[in-house]
Design goal:
Length: 177
């Protein structure tokens, strides 16, 4: 498993940032350059004050390099995010499921939102695992090495995108003024 670790901040108060991520994430897609859509599939308010939300994210197909377009289908560009938002400690536990490699890729973690003056500190801690033996065409003999290499590559690739979501929320706030 590869560790996902991101520290960032958003220049708005914590309660506003937390509530916007929880309740209005679907409205942020226009402010995220690599995202085509974010759609809430379900929302459940739990008895202990937490909220569980399932969203489907879809990346923009034009982001695929032209040489790879005949191999990468549109359904491969989406993932499901199941997040449990806890307003008591301003945290969000999440699990991600990749649409076309559900058995091969696992990702889960927690986001924590802290007060930092008039800004919000955001810490994302998680893990990403790739079981390459469950990816079609990968020989079992080298699956461990392939899985490890893919984990490192994906974490390196998604880390800036996780920060881009924070820039997107700042653009969203600016558009509301």
């Amino acid at each position: 498993m590869a560790k996902i670790s991101v520290q960032d901040s958003v220049s708005s108060p914590r309660d506003v940032v937390f509530a916007t991520f929880r309740d209005k994430l679907d409205e942020l897609d226009e402010f995220l350059p690599d995202i085509e859509s974010i759609v809430t599939e379900s929302r459940e308010d739990l008895d202990d004050g937490r909220t569980r939300i399932v969203r489907v994210w879809r990346a923009r197909p034009e982001e695929i390099p032209s040489a790879a377009r005949k191999f990468i289908k549109p359904e491969m560009l989406q993932w499901t995010d199941t997040a449990t938002w806890n307003p008591n400690d301003f945290s969000c536990e999440w699990e991600m499921e990749v649409g076309f490699l559900t058995d091969a890729i696992t990702a889960k973690g927690v986001n924590r939102y802290s007060e930092d003056g008039d800004s919000t500190g955001i810490v994302i801690d998680g893990v990403l695992g790739v079981d390459a033996s469950k990816i079609p065409g990968v020989p079992r003999l080298i699956a461990g090495k392939v899985g490890s290499a893919v984990e490192k590559f994906v974490v390196k690739m998604i880390t800036p995108n996780l920060k881009d979501v924070n820039r997107g929320i700042e653009k969203y706030f600016a558009a509301q003024d």
